[in-house]
Queue: 4 jobs
Job 1
Amino acid sequence: MAVDHVDFEVQEGEIFGFLGLNGAGKTTVVRLLTGQLSPHAGQATVLGKDISKSSKEIQANLGLSFETTNLYEQMNAVENLELFAQLFGIRNFKAMPLLEKVGLSGREK
């Protein structure tokens, strides 16, 4: 496993796609940024914090969309969002503002 000289910034509210060839290191970078792996050299910073020292705090503020479906297809979008919010202990969760933010209002079913 080796990732060398990866450097990018994602601004608040920005939707970022991380693309590349098979074996290019995309999964390794995502695992580093989400705290699933620790860097052997260099550093990974998310939300201004070092992922090696603040992974739990950072993880509470991350959202990812994976290559394969990670949803329950028998449930609609609102039900899926509410389930995952409940699983992650998010209180007073409102699905509709999130769906509106990504242009999916009116398609929540």
Note: Residues 71-109 form one domain.
Job 2
Amino acid sequence: MVFALAALLSGSAYAHHSLTAEFDTRKILTLTGVVSRVQWANPHIYVDLDVTEAGGKGATWHLECVPVAMARKAGVSSKMLMGNGERVSVEAFPARDGTAHLGFLAKITYPDGHHFQFAQDMVATETK
């Protein structure tokens, strides 16, 4: 399934704030952890990812994602994002202002290899 998300970054569709104003799209963080919560609410979905950082300390990353309507239109549900408690790999844009553990979810990959890509190439795909 392939769907275009170019509207995500357009001024009118994303008028309440700009992705590039809040997140540094020139940097991609790779995180590995377990999705502990999906907040399926407008104006955006938020995914909490529990990770173990260097030194063994745990942290929760709060990752903004696309709007609910966009995910639904693409056939993505909150249950699909949860990942059944398995470890997932995430690519995220960090907060531009340096806020710790805050980012924008660009791609999430599950243990079986399927993934959802929400940004970067402005096309989201799920592959298996």
Note: The chain has three helices and eight strands.
Job 3
Amino acid sequence: MNETQQEDWLDRQLREAAPYIDDAGFTVAVIAKLPAPRQKRVSLRGTILVGITLVGCVLAYILSNGGSFIITSIGRVVTLPVLWLLAFAFASGILITAGGLVAAISKSREPQS
């Protein structure tokens, strides 16, 4: 019961504390001496990357004869035996899990700041 009373006392003290401590104008003087905020530069990097990506996609589509390789690849996958598909799915899962594990271990070895 004593712990509850102490928490209530602390809670009451924090609520009743003054929201601003008078510092005789120190805060205002420090803020006035700070340099003006810099203007934020507008970067075209994102727009350029998206544009180059779209150009690359269109170029790949045109050079691949209208994407016919996709239809051919899907046809080949459909004709594979189910056991091969299961083995491919299992191997893909193992590789992705191993990659995640390597990333987690390397992240945990980085120095914490």
Note: The chain has a mean pLDDT of 86.
Job 4
Amino acid sequence: MTDQTNHSENDHDDAHKDDGRKPDRNGEHQQSDTEQQDEPDDDKKPSVFKKPLFWVILIVVVGGLIVGGVLYWLHARQFESTDDAFVDTHIVRLAPQVAGTLVQVADIDNRHVEAGRLLAVIKASGRDAQVAEAQANESQARAQFAQAQAQVTAAEAQRQQAAAQARVPMAAAVKAQQDLARYEALLRLDPSAVAGQQLDQARATARQTAADAAAAREQIDTATAQISVARKQVGAAKSVIDARRAQVEQANVTIGDLRLTAPVAGQVVNRSVNVGSYVAPGTQLMAIVPDTMWVTANFKETQLTLMKIGQPVDIHVDAYPGVDFKGHVDSIQRGAGQAFALLPPQNATGNYVKVVQRVPVRIVFDAKNGPDPKRYPIGPGMSVVPTVKVR
């Protein structure tokens, strides 16, 4: 009885396990259609687009992007910037005017010097002798000038002497002429009042005294001409003195050119010579970067619409990204950079393609409103990014 009961339970369990399933080809059971219809559809979820929270978040994000974009545009339109900019200055290149050997060169590579600092000394052969020769020529010219002045004095004295000597014959000539005129008047009144011999004597005396007076006048004229000649010699001697003095000054200038000093204050760079080097006129010895520097920014021509002189500028040097230098617009070049090129473009030939041109703008550092660029090793050619506030 017990065995039959257990057998019935086992059969009932097997029938319950196999209910609603039938084996497939692989030996697995498949769920019946009735069971599939009775099971609830728990795996299906509502679409995310039907949730109100999604649309709220989407509207907030889009609105934030629009507001942010508008604010960024309103802020960005106030500035004009370019990365085509660099530090610029007028580099002073030192070169001698005379040839010679360097006997002294200051060891000041990449160091700051003040104006007037001695940088190099050149030894030139024969310069002292040239100075001495020029001075000797000047002394000789001065001696000739003194001699010419003495000749003027002598000529004036000779003229005075000739004038004094001429008084006697000129007075005698006047008296003889008066006597002759009186005899001739008496002769016209009474022919017997004057003897013929006496009249001839008076005429001869008048002629002789007139000749003596003329000779005296010639001596005076000769003395006067000698004075003029002596004065011209004085002028010529003075001109020679000026020429000799110029030669002395030139020789002294040449001696001064043997000492090269710093014309401006700045940093000495690119020294290419040393003691013992032979240099010729025009040979570059070294260069000086002045303390005064600025930024040359090549803005597009379309960026200059609102740009004016005096507008503030934020200067970012690539070498110092954490330092914000300040400056202002100093000047704007009248003309694009290509107009001043060695070979300017000829747009009248070939096919023309319009290209936005670049215009150099000079920007000056403002040490009062920001960091002092002199405290940083900033030099010409270094890249910067200036931002000009145009609104």
Note: The domain at 80-89+291-389 is CATH 2.40.30.170 (Elongation Factor Tu (Ef-tu); domain 3).
